[in-house]
Amino acid sequence: MTGGFDLGANGWIGFNFNMEKLRDQHGMGLDATRGTGTPDRVGPAPLRIGPVVVDPPVLQAPMAGFTNYAYRQVVREFGGAGLQATEMVHARGFLEIDRRRQEYPERLWGVEDEPRPLAVQIWDNDPSALADVGARLAHELKVSVVDINFGCPVKQVTERAKSGSYLLKCPDRVGEIVARVSQACAPTPVTAKIRLGCTRDNITAALIAEVVEQAGGAALTVHGRTAQDFFSGQADWDRIGQLKERLKRIPLIGNGDLDSPEKVVAAFQNWNVDGVMIARAALAKPWLFRQAAAALAGEEVPADLTLHEQRTLLLEHFRLVAARFGETKGAVLMRKFACCYAQGKPGAREFRTHVAKVSTAAEFLHVVETCFPQSSAGDTPEMARSGELGVGS
Ligand SMILES: Cc1cc2nc3c(=O)[nH]c(=O)nc-3n(C[C@H](O)[C@H](O)[C@H](O)COP(=O)(O)O)c2cc1C
User: Fold this and answer.
1) What is the mean pLDDT of residues 10-26?
2) Which of 138, 250, 300, 329 lies 20 to 30 angstroms, CA to CA, from 322?
3) Does one domain contain both 82 and 172?
């Protein structure tokens, strides 16, 4: 990222970005692979997904509508995520777009050129379509990991398309899919992301874990809820931890409710997982991976960004989105990200009310300038660190 661009030419408000300063103060751009192989290493070992080394073993989760190239780039700048993932891509949709327009789906924006390691997640229930798309991703786009979604609880995916978490009650189909996609992608590793089961009275994760491993899967990520739970209640980390016994060869990645460096450390200590994956909390704090990596390495955890810095980051994120989609569509797309950035801060509700209605870049920039949460008492990193600004958990 480069700082200091001037939006004034389009009549936009002339914010003065200073991304270089952000980098210096918050370790942005640090190499996420630091520490690999050092004998006196503190913290968990790097995760191995087939030939891919994930170090630190902290993964950025796939999130439809959010984890596009711009978001991944923001996360990458901070460092700390050993493996990043795209949004999920529908296999038959991919093939159809390719047949009709001979291009990749919009969800693969950036994938061709961005740094590796990078995982692309695909979903469907058709082993052939998944294998075809997996092969294209592995051999044409040369992604590091092909991940298959067996966890999505959304009705359009489960009931309408009999895919995602629906497949957790179809172990044979899961096995066939993992085997076919693994064969098609080799030597690129294929992983599976699951929930505990479809419903609380039908927990199938243990069986599915064995099926994934036997079919040639290279890692298993488990979100500790059932599809029925959606996002309610708490992730059941005891059940995640129990799956470790079922996996003889491949690593277990735990996922659910990790929103602080302390919780990441506790996940490794208490449940013996090989890796962890973070989703929602890192929408509000894309620097959380960097904090988690530091905590795992026994280093001082970098402070949260100040509110002023977060506003700068939000504007930089907007610039990345606008560069791809244009200013107007970019502003509309940024509404949801802006709400995430403001989450939990004083004045977030008012900000959300205004930013949710913006339909032009000028409106977006105006709302960010006038309403993004800020501290009246000055806004120093020390205050943010001590939680005085409400930035944190
Ligand atoms: C908006 C949103 C979109 C998501 N999209 C995907 C997706 O495309 N693929 C997937 O496997 N999981 C998806 N998830 C689930 C997350 O990857 C993750 O498993 C879940 O949010 C639990 O982790 P967390 O508690 O850290 O958020 C999504 C979650 C959210 C909130």
Assistant:
1) 43
2) 138
3) yes
